């Protein structure tokens, strides 16, 4: 055979053999088995007539395979086959091979083995972060997060308030998934969630609330401040009258704002004010303190008490107190003889004392029964019968309007006065409303008041005599405001003395008539000693029925006359029909025994707010801490023209907040309510200057003792009755270095009309915050999460509310009502909510402005 022919035959045989070779071109890939998601195992083979899969030494069912033939670009034939591998109950790892079977049963096995392992993630984390934790700003801190047992290893991700955290120099992630803070910042507070994710599942931890707090730090002390110049003889006289408290002192202050405590941080420790006696040159004699309490009776039948020479201490060579510092007396007569005395002070009581004790107990029981009967007989305000828009109470008529707004108006002779009158019977008929009311009232028309509403009712329909009835006691009030209040609450305001009563929403179970009234302090004042003075008017609150007990405390706002509350010891007196109770109040704390919470308004220093849980009578009194503290007074000027050629100018001065103008009969008001700051003590000089020609006054100068006088009149004579009277009144306190003169210009002609005053009372629904927003805040901050409402109280500057709030069923409700009483802009509340860690609620409050 020729050589060329042999080569051609060999080439054709080799070519035929390569075209029949079985080659695996696509190997099966590895992956994970997920529950309810089968894994697709695929393999592609050239020149194969069939493909088989074998996993963990077992052939897979060929009927489950899905095969497809095709032709490559080079013309070769290929076979592609795939099979679904499902997660079995044994959850074991599968190692699978692909076999290609060609002509002549030639079998080729894949070079790479596919590993298919089950993927999973257990339900519970191995280590959850704490549900909440308080961390001091600047501390190093780690939030642990050990994910559940998983395959494959999950990816860890942290979120704060729903936003993914970007890691930086302050926050890094540990190898175990923990979030590490190198120095935690105030803005790092929030709700943190750790999320673990793999192909099988994604699981998250419960939110972990981090509260970053800041402990308070003191600022630097201010310079010493005070007035040390004093005349020794005057100081000696005042010490004898009032005690050592009048010795002038220097004081300095510091503030807990470097930094201020935030988010429940500890307040500063120590005092925020220091005082020191002035370096006086006066020689001051010592004075005895009050005697202490008597000791228990000793076995020798004596009792002792002591006093100290500290009122004041002797200064600069002053004399020591004369007398004994100890006192003892016999505490029993006869019972210490050997016949009656038993060791350890036990005394044998004779049998005749038993019937005496029984008689005393019987008398007390009879007295209590009589008192209960008296209360049941008199503690009511009468039977109510409605007529049109008003209410008439038998023996005590009330007036109310069903509308949300009404105004009380007074007659020209001054404040409306209210006196008891006759009864009104609903059996009367055929008479007008005016006639019925005239028939049940003994007051003159000049002393009646009426309520006007924005409805279409006439003045005759709303004209009535209003009574103030407090637990069965009827007495006159200088300002009386009755109002019909329902579950929506309301604000009752008597503007002439700055008195307000705020009734929050849902405070009353059902509509009822609330009566707010103000009075001058009674002659029988409740003060404990002669140095206390009333610094507000007396305020009474009451309702028209015995079943109108409030669910939440009302907020009663006083206007007081103290120029600086730091100069006074302040006391709140409360009378709820069982006698006066006295509670000392301070600007940054409250008496823990008091059922009434008090708050000094930081935006208006002349107002004190009280959260009152009951109706009653209330009065603010104060005792000066030092000599001659400052008071705010109100000045009004009246005139009384008897004839064309003579008239009077009367200057009337009352303490701010008292509400009195002391208008006399036939007087006209020409200057209304001008503020004057004076010292408590020292005469007030009043000068009448620059009197117009054709006029003269018998006296142009006088001095008033403000502790005993409240007004003075200048008698004016006129030569020409057609001329206009002009003059200048100058008021200045004698010996005061702190008060500026008050200069009033007076102009009056014969056609003078009375000044139109703005004295009125009103009821409104003027709430800054919608009730739906309040409900949302209350639901998030109220107990059992005490920390939230406490933090809001501190951020609002009412830290002393915390103790009182723990006694309430809904402290957040009362806290928001107190905020409403301060009349602040909602932006202040939103800022406080952000500081307390509630930015979402703050955003809602921002949107209502």
TrEMBL record:
Main function: Receptor for netrin required for axon guidance. Mediates axon repulsion of neuronal growth cones in the developing nervous system upon ligand binding.
Pfam family, one: ZU5
Subcellular location: Cell membrane; Membrane
Gene: WBGene00277056
Cited Gene3D superfamilies: 2.60.220.30, Death Domain, Fas, Immunoglobulins, Thrombospondin type-1 (TSP1) repeat
InterPro entries: DEATH-like_dom_sf, Death_dom, Ig-like_dom, Ig-like_dom_sf, Ig-like_fold, Ig_sub, Ig_sub2, TSP1_rpt
Protein name per its UniProtKB record: Netrin receptor UNC5
GO biological process: chemorepulsion of axon; commissural neuron axon guidance; distal tip cell migration; dorsal/ventral axon guidance; establishment or maintenance of actin cytoskeleton polarity; gonad morphogenesis; mesodermal cell migration; motor neuron axon guidance
UniProt family annotation: Belongs to the unc-5 family.
Main location: membrane
Swiss-Prot/TrEMBL keywords: Developmental protein, Disulfide bond, Glycoprotein, Immunoglobulin domain, Membrane, Receptor, Signal, Transmembrane, Transmembrane helix
Keyword tRNA processing applies: no
Species this protein is from: Pristionchus pacificus (Parasitic nematode worm)
Topological relation to the membrane, as annotated: Single-pass type I membrane protein
PROSITE patterns: IG_LIKE, TSP1
GO CC aspect terms: axonal growth cone; plasma membrane
Signal sequence residues: 1-18
GO molecular function: netrin receptor activity
Membrane-spanning residues: 346-370
